[in-house]
Amino acid sequence: MKKRSVYTYRLWVVSCLVVIAAIWPFSSRADDKMQPDEIVAKHLESLGAAETRASVHSRIAAGTVVATVRSPSTAKFSGQAIMASDGNKNMIKLGFEGAGSYQEKFGFDGRDLTVGYVRPGVRGYWGDFLLTYQNIVKEGLVGGTLSDSWPLLNSSQKKPKLEYRGTKKIGGKSLYELKYIPRGSSDVEISLFFDTETFQHVRTEYTRLISAGLGTGVIGSGRPASAAQSGAIDASGQQRPARYKMVEEFSDFRKESGLTLPHTYKVGLDLDTRTGRLIVDWEFTLTEFAFNQPIPAATFNVNTKQ
To answer: Which positions ≥6 away from 46 have C-beta within 8 Å?
Structure first.
């Protein structure tokens, strides 16, 4: 009886190992087989039905925004935010009372990117960064699915190269990562992240690393750790590597006119140079949405007097 019990136990162990061996490689192979096109297709389904997506031709979203400065000093400002987009045109405007360089206003009219000044010769930190790396806006990436410019809505037109990078745990959640390579070239490495269960786009990371010796600059006004206004961000004379990172996060997804869109939008800017470090984020709480409204063309040139 004792020998039979040992035999039965061993048989059970072997059976478990066989099952695990069968499942484990299958799971790995299933993950390996996930294609960018499949992720994009499921992502679009998460936004809404195809006919609903096709019926939307412009978007306006408005609400409140909080800017939090974390380095080199600390401060917090509250204000109003508005986002507007129509096709490949896009505009974001943030207004704070007494917030100085944390005011933001930029727009892309389909051809040119314009960034507003907070005072003569000085732009906002976020807009200044985007002016240096204009592809981020021109590709329609800024604002994610909140924008009608979102490139995955019409990837056949933008024709980016998408590379599957597997899954990554961020904030306790499992996310699919796709590397986004714009047609042509880009100085910035771009990664899109999608929830593995819902396929909603929840995060975009933009990273630029400048090796020591290539140099880095400071913002035109001498502010620490920001992008330079006229390409000086790559000026010579750097003694150590510089790292520029912008992260967009999207959450609180709810339906608006048939589309499932984020109502919380957070942008984090972390610019680390030999002259100092700037860390600031803006968190939007969006409460008002409008679709298919006529938007004057001048809206997308923020330096045009309206």
So the answer is: 198, 199, 200, 260
Burial of 32 (0-12, 13-18, 19+ CB in 10 A): exposed
Sorted by where each begins, the domain ranges of the chain are: 1-33, 35-300
CA distances for 229 relative to 121, 123, 141, angstroms: 10, 8, 21
Cα–Cα distance for residue pair 202/225, rounded to 1 Å = 27
Structure-token pair, residue 34: 């996930």
> Contacts for 266-271 with beta carbons within 8 Å, 24 or more apart?
267/126, 269/125, 269/126, 269/129, 269/245, 270/243, 270/244, 270/245, 270/246, 271/125, 271/129, 271/225, 271/226, 271/227, 271/244, 271/245
Count of alpha carbons within 13 Å of 268, Cβ hemisphere only? 14
Residue 93 and residue 78: Cα distance in Å, rounded? 13
pLDDT in tens, 234-278: 444 446 678 999 999 999 999 999 999 999 999 999 999 878 899
Q: What are the tokens at 240?
A: 């150590």
DSSP string of 163-174? EEEEEEEETTEE
Mean pLDDT, the chain, rounded, equals 84
CA distances from 126 to 166, 181, 244, 297, 301 (A): 30, 22, 12, 23, 17
Bridge-based pairing of strands 161-170 and 173-181 is: antiparallel
The CATH-assigned architecture of domain 35-300 is Clam (2.50)
Dist. CA 58–CA 143, nearest whole Å: 14
